[in-house]
Design goal:
The chain is an alpha/beta fold. 39% of the residues lie in helices and 12% in strands. The chain is built from 21 helices and 17 strands. The strands form 4 sheets. Strands 3, 4, 5, 6, 7 and 8 form a 6-stranded mixed β-sheet that branches. Strands 9, 10, 11, 12, 13 and 14 form a 6-stranded parallel β-sheet that branches. The protein has a 3-stranded antiparallel β-sheet with strand order 16-15-17, with helices on one face. The radius of gyration is 33 Å and the shape is elongated. This is Sulfate adenylyltransferase. It holds the Pfam family PUA_2.
Length: 577
């Protein structure tokens, strides 16, 4: 039996500022009586068991997240995507969407199938989740897939490892229909599917533009916030989608990460313009290719702009940190159909007193606090809340509860060396004696750093991060304020006292020089004239170095006007005496 294909018509999006990728928003979720009938029929079909990752992928296809794909790829589309980054019809698609069951029982079922057959896909409960209609069966080369998709065949790469660990030898291609949607547990109440976001953005809120932001395993930090708020200056709305479900165990637990997002968004963002929704996807670990996939997913959720940071979807050191930017050079804006907004690495500059990137800040690492997702996680793991300039306390306090594992093992070791954490967050510490301070005579190495160094760097930042610019500002205002009533009088009084005291020193030394002999009778008890003169010169230089004390009568010269004051008010009449 042919399942009905539920696809939103292209013309239904005519009045929207965006279109689904490929021109149609796929909906292959069976409902009502038809679903009940197909659930019964599915139990009579050959059955292939699938894991959680496959269940998530099935749901993504059926709900339109991966539009225009209606199922798993046939061999022609598979090879075209693998080598060209496009479907056979030319539509941009960066990663193969394929299904190759593994396991002895599944292999037996696959061996019995032919083109035109249908097969039920069941989860760990052994209940059908979806039905797949077979349009193609084909073998593929795993090493070829790894080399083309990931640029490496190294089994240490998680994507490569997944191919050999999770995929069988024969791929099944064809459309799917979803029989049963998975309950998302604590995320169900804030779950949004593409059909929901299109309605919210363009029918309810009447937006004309929406920025999409997909983020991985980290709690919301100030780098994210910098990107979000820059975008909100130019777009009507923002859709924030943290990836959930498939994060590694040593990351922050998904529930706590989502709650950290909610806390910051509720406190610091314009609520009516921002939507938060979990995105339940499978990690592909494809680096730059996965970045393109995320942009197309944002498009299918109705976003007109994709916000892409540095090293988006990065995998260790396998890809250049800006490969997620340069890959978009391969596609024209027209064929992508979504405005790609690229952002460089964000850090906090204590000298600028704001968040910045290399494109906007000229100061060196002595003044910078880096925003490293890994560093943030490791600080939380050690029970230390990162500086407020890196992570809002509303975010880090909740995220700390969800980090696993916590602390050190029985050998006092952490998952990541503490020196690596310090370098990723506080680069100044290795080169400078303190934040914004002088350079060390010899740089520290990450290997010699300990937990005490992390504590010292953290305390330095907590005490001084917001003082650096404040101190500079106070110096400028002390010299610059013509109205001395708003200046700190104790500074003026301290400077006057300094000068008076040093003038007293100079005066006494001048008398000493007059009386000093040319040659001292005892070099350990008395000073000769030459030594006394040297002391005097040093004291005079110190007097010159003392900054001036500024009072109103000393800076009257700054207030002058070339015309009588009444002329500035527009009067031509002589000013009355």
């Amino acid at each position: 039996m042919d399942q009905k294909i539920a696809v939103a018509k292209t013309d239904s999006f005519t009045n929207y500022p965006q279109q689904p990728h490929g021109g149609k928003l796929v909906d292959r979720v069976l409902r009502g009586k038809e679903r009940e009938e197909e659930l019964i029929r599915a139990k009579e079909l050959p059955t292939i068991m699938v894991d959680l990752e496959a269940v998530i992928t099935l749901e993504m296809i059926a709900t339109g997240v991966l539009s225009p794909n209606e199922g798993f790829m046939n061999e022609a589309d598979y090879k075209s995507v693998l080598y060209e980054g496009r479907l056979k019809n030319g539509v941009v698609w960066p990663v193969p969407l394929s299904f190759a069951p593994i396991g002895n029982r599944n292999k037996e079922v696959v061996a019995s199938l032919s083109v035109g057959d249908e097969v039920a896909l069941a989860d760990e409960t052994k209940e059908p989740v979806a039905i797949l209609k077979i349009e193609d069966l084909f073998s593929y080369n795993k090493e070829e897939r790894a080399a083309q998709l990931f640029g490496t065949t190294d089994r240490n790469h998680p994507g490569v490892d997944s191919i050999f660990r999770r995929m069988g030898d024969v791929a099944l291609g064809g459309p799917i229909t979803l029989l049963r949607r998975v309950d998302w547990g604590p995320f169900e109440k804030i779950r949004l599917e593409p059909k929901d976001t299109w309605r919210i953005f363009y029918e309810e809120k009447k937006f004309r533009s929406v920025g999409g932001f997909i983020t991985g395993a980290n709690p919301l930090h100030r780098g994210h916030e910098y990107i979000h708020k820059n975008a909100l200056e130019t777009v009507d709305g923002l859709l924030v989608q943290p990836l959930v479900e498939m994060a590694k165990r040593e990351y922050t637990r998904n529930e706590f990460r989502m709650l950290s997002y909610r806390s910051v968004l509720d406190t610091y963002y314009p609520k009516e313009r921002v939507s938060l929704a979990p995105l339940r996807v499978t990690y592909i670990f494809a680096g730059p290719r996965e970045t393109v996939l995320h942009a197309l997913i944002m498009k299918n959720f109705g976003c007109t702009h994709a916000l892409i940071g540095r090293d988006h979807a990065g995998v260790g050191d396998y890809y250049d940190k800006y490969a997620s930017h340069s890959i978009f050079d391969q596609f024209s804006p027209e064929e992508l159909g979504i405005n790609i907004q690229l952002y460089h690495e964000v850090f906090y500059c204590t000298r600028c007193s704001n968040h910045a990137t290399e494109k906007t800040c000229s100061h060196d690492d002595r003044f910078r606090l880096k925003i490293s997702g890994t560093g943030i996680r490791e600080m939380l793991r050690h029970g230390v809340m990162p500086p407020k300039e890196v992570v809002r306390p509303e975010s880090s306090r909740i995220a700390m509860q969800g980090i696993q594992p916590k602390g050190l093992d029985e050998d006092q070791r952490s998952i990541s060396p503490v020196g690596k954490t310090i370098k990723s967050m506080f680069p100044f510490y290795l080169e400078a004696t303190r934040l914004g301070g002088t350079y060390r005579r010899e740089n520290l190495t990450t290997e010699e750093l300990t937990m005490r160094d992390l504590e010292a760097a953290t305390m330095d930042v907590r005490l001084n991060a917001d003082r650096i610019y404040q101190d500079i500002y106070e110096e400028y205002t002390y010299i610059g304020d013509a109205n001395r009533d708003i200046q700190r009088q104790w500074v003026t009084e301290a400077r006057e006292a300094l000068r008076q005291q040093q003038e007293m020193v100079v005066e006494d030394l001048e008398e000493k020089v007059k009386q000093a002999p040319e040659t001292a009778s005892d070099e350990f008890l008395y000073q000769d004239k030459e030594e006394s003169q040297r002391e005097l010169e040093v004291a005079q230089k110190i007097l010159e170095d003392i900054p001036p004390a500024l009072r109103a009568d000393k800076i009257e010269y700054r207030v002058w006007n070339p015309l009588p004051y009444n002329r500035y008010r527009g009067s031509d009449e002589p000013e009355e005496k």
